[in-house]
Amino acid sequence: MKKGIIILAAATLGLAACKQEKKGAGGLLYTIHHSAGNEKIKEGDIVKMNFIQKNDKDSVLANTFESETPAVFPAQKKMYAGDMNDVLTLFGEGDSATFKVNLDTMAFHSKQPKPEQFKNDKYITFTVKVEKVIKKKAGEADSTFNKRAQEFFQADYKASSEKKKAAEPAKLKAYLEDTKLATKTTASGLHYIIEKPGSAEKPALGDTVLIEYTGRVTKKGKDGKYKIFDTSDEKLAKAENEFKPGKPYGPQKMPVGGTIPGFTEALQLIGKGGKIKVIIPSNLGYGEQGAPQVGIMPFSPIAFDLEIKDIIKGKPAAATSAPVTAAPVKK
């Protein structure tokens, strides 16, 4: 019985030790949360990694877990002890860890000031999961290695995209059920509710509309809310902590046909003074790429509340099928 207790205690201490923050060269701090026991990353390996990037205020600056867009990159030669490439050599495939790169050390060795967004920070912090490491085989030519890695990641991307695409109908259904929206659907697949039809005359391709809009993702955040990714409503932006200094708020002018297809189609369903709520599937929105920089994941529907304030007639024009920017308004 005592032997069992001793073994259990030793295992517990070993686990705790693995998760303690350690110091590395150049002011590096790191904690290994899980080690899969695989060969460590070395220069020349090609790595697939998910990560969360934060500053000293614990603000999330990037999150590939949420955006579903892991980084794929070759491991480079370190520039100095404790840099981003040096820390990678501590991990192998399947490992998860948190590490803090010292920004003062980085500035000293690069002879460059800290990036503006980190000027008051000491560290840039990453929590990572090493998803895959492609290693060069003994005697393998560089061209053969690169081709093998390229083929693997192309197949991996395709499989991942197909999985996300297959999951989209369930995402849309879950959003509609959660919001209790009884929508109609156009032939293209656009879901909509006309809250106010507006004037009999509707905008056409080539016209310019003056609109108020709010766009939201259709995946709930940790706070249980659907996050705004763009809006013309300054008051709403401030209320939901999405205010962007320098961004023009208030009614916006937009050429009909100058944005993603679903947005263009929605505008043509109502007249001046009209209001409409739409859920745009990814094939009418941001597709397989999404817009991760504003929280729109690949193969994800998005929701808009739109109101047309005015219609300025113009010459007929062909529709633009691709999005102009992450926001719906073409400046």
UniProtKB/TrEMBL annotation:
<dbReference type="GO" id="GO:0003755">
    <property type="term" value="F:peptidyl-prolyl cis-trans isomerase activity"/>
</dbReference>
<dbReference type="Pfam" id="PF00254">
    <property type="entry name" value="FKBP_C"/>
</dbReference>
<protein>
    <recommendedName>
        <fullName>peptidylprolyl isomerase</fullName>
        <ecNumber>5.2.1.8</ecNumber>
    </recommendedName>
</protein>
<dbReference type="InterPro" id="IPR046357">
    <property type="entry name" value="PPIase_dom_sf"/>
</dbReference>
<feature type="domain" description="PPIase FKBP-type">
    <location>
        <begin position="206"/>
        <end position="312"/>
    </location>
</feature>
<keyword id="KW-0413">Isomerase</keyword>
<comment type="similarity">
    <text>Belongs to the FKBP-type PPIase family.</text>
</comment>
<dbReference type="InterPro" id="IPR001179">
    <property type="entry name" value="PPIase_FKBP_dom"/>
</dbReference>
<keyword id="KW-0697">Rotamase</keyword>
